[in-house]
Design brief:
By secondary structure, the protein is an alpha+beta fold. The chain has six helices and 18 strands.
């Protein structure tokens, strides 16, 4: 039996209304966990094969799910001048992502150069209509500077209005920022206070001095997503399709922390996967969460 451990990050959220046991609790900690081996995604694991600890303290798993359920998804698209050679490939990849996603997913697009603007028509916060999504992608453009941090901040706040309990952002950019009023530290803090998984796709030329691939890697790592750096335009669509499979293959675990007063500080979560039936497993999820002040 082989045991693999990773440090994960959850966030405190309202328990899903479909789970009557938890509808009265607001302190359920939720983890979105992806388990893979060398052959791909691993399904069929049971609750008893996961062990959760918070700051070294074992936590009973109170909620466990491995169903293909809809999510709220935001596509955050760099529309600055440097993206012009990749615009058509990104649009095609966005549609491929939608076609590989759950039919009931609700999606939105957010475009940015030195300013940030929505892709959907006015009054349309989210859509499950693929035609509307295509129209939104076509509004992306390619001109101007790059306000990446402003865009991610706006996308996180937009996701707060999503109806699905699982929320995802996909950020397509080179990672550079030369126009934001928002600091990266504030974007990171906002992500840690929400139950949002961020995937990043880095598109930059080798000689692009403004590109910051390390920033894109960190955003994905701490939120439980994954970062990708396609070498060519033709590689963007397979990356988007892989992200769609990743979203649809994750486990959801939840636990209620012990009687520890909320201090607004970051807490570490450790999840062990122990299965006599499986070997060579790797686990991916968040690495930190912020305990809201005044809560247990």
């Amino acid at each position: 039996m082989r045991v693999l451990s990773l440090v994960l990050l959850p966030l405190l959220v309202q328990a899903p209304q479909t789970q009557a046991t938890f509808t009265s609790r607001s302190d359920l900690v939720v983890l979105h966990v992806c388990v893979v081996d060398r052959n791909g995604y691993v399904g069929g694991l049971t609750k008893d094969e996961f062990v959760v600890q918070e700051d070294g303290r074992p936590q009973p798993i109170a909620f466990f799910e491995h169903d293909d359920t809809p999510v709220s998804v935001g596509l955050v698209l760099d529309s600055s001048g440097s993206m012009a050679p990749r615009r058509d490939a990104v649009i095609a990849a966005g549609m491929a992502f939608a076609e590989s996603s759950h039919p009931a997913d609700e999606l939105f697009t957010l475009n940015f150069n030195e300013r940030v603007w929505p892709g959907l028509a006015a009054g349309r916060g989210f859509t499950s209509d693929r035609g509307e999504l295509r129209d939104a992608l076509l509004r992306s453009g390619a001109r101007g500077k790059t306000a990446l941090f402003d865009a991610i901040d706006a996308a996180l706040r937009h996701l707060d209005g999503g109806q699905q309990s699982r929320k995802v952002l996909i950020v397509v950019s080179d990672g550079g920022d030369n126009a934001s009023g928002t600091r990266y530290e504030d974007v990171l803090d906002g992500a840690l206070r929400r139950d949002v998984v961020i995937y990043t796709i880095g598109l930059a030329d080798r000689d692009d001095r403004d590109a910051k691939p390390g920033l894109l890697r960190e955003l994905a790592r701490v939120t439980g997503g994954e970062s990708f750096f396609p070498k060519s335009n033709s590689d963007i669509t397979p990356v988007m399709e892989r992200i769609a499979r990743d979203i649809r293959s994750s486990y959801t675990l939840g636990y209620v922390p012990g009687e520890r007063r909320g201090d607004g500080e970051r807490r570490k979560i450790r999840v062990d996967v122990s299965s006599p039936r499986r070997h060579g497993l790797a686990v991916r999820a968040r690495s930190l969460y912020v305990a809201p002040r005044g809560r247990p």
